[in-house]
Write a structure and sequence with these properties.
Blueprint lengths: L6 E6 L2 H10 L5 E6 L5 E9 L2 E7 L17 E4 L2 H11 L5 E2 L3 E5 L5 E5 L10
Parallel strand pairs: 1-4, 5-8
Antiparallel strand pairs: 2-3, 3-4, 6-7, 7-8
Length: about 130
C-alpha cells in the first residue's frame, strides 16, 4: 500500500467562506463544488497538489449530520517558501500569526489551525 496523502476533510459551518479563504489566502485551486438539492453548497474540493485534495464539508445540522469527531485533525500544514510565508503574514497581519524559524501558524475562518512551513522533510524513511 502506498502511504501518500489522498485527501483531508474539514467540517465547516460556512463552506463558501472557508473555500474563499483557502483560495484567496493560500492560492489553492478549486476542483469541484458539490451542491444540495436547493442549490446551497454541500462541499468544495481544493487541490493540495500531487493528486491530494482538501475537502471542505458542511456541518450544518439542518442540512447534513456533523462529521467531525474529537480528537480530530489539529493542524493542516502546507509547504511554502520563506517568501510565501512572509507574504502570508503581510496578508493576515502579524497579530494573527505565530511565526517560528520554519513555520507560520494561523487559524482559518472556522478556527482550524493551519500552517505553512519551509522545513525540509526527509526524502526516505529511517530504517
Amino acid at each position: 500500500m502506498s502511504a501518500q496523502l489522498h485527501h483531508l476533510a474539514l467540517g465547516a459551518h460556512d463552506v463558501d467562506a472557508l473555500a474563499a479563504f483557502y483560495e484567496d489566502i493560500l492560492g489553492l485551486l478549486r476542483l469541484q463544488t458539490h451542491r444540495f438539492d436547493d442549490g446551497g453548497t454541500r462541499s468544495v474540493w481544493l487541490s493540495l497538489g500531487g493528486g491530494a485534495v482538501l475537502m471542505l464539508e458542511t456541518v450544518d445540522e439542518d442540512r447534513a449530520p456533523a462529521r467531525s469527531r474529537p480528537p480530530g485533525l489539529f493542524l493542516l500544514a502546507l509547504a511554502a517558501t520563506d517568501d510565501e510565508r512572509r507574504n502570508l503574514v503581510d496578508m493576515l497581519g502579524e497579530e494573527n500569526c505565530e511565526v517560528t524559524t520554519y513555520t507560520t501558524y494561523f487559524c482559518d475562518p472556522e478556527g482550524n489551525r493551519v500552517a505553512v512551513s519551509s522545513y525540509d522533510l526527509p526524502d526516505s524513511p529511517v530504517v
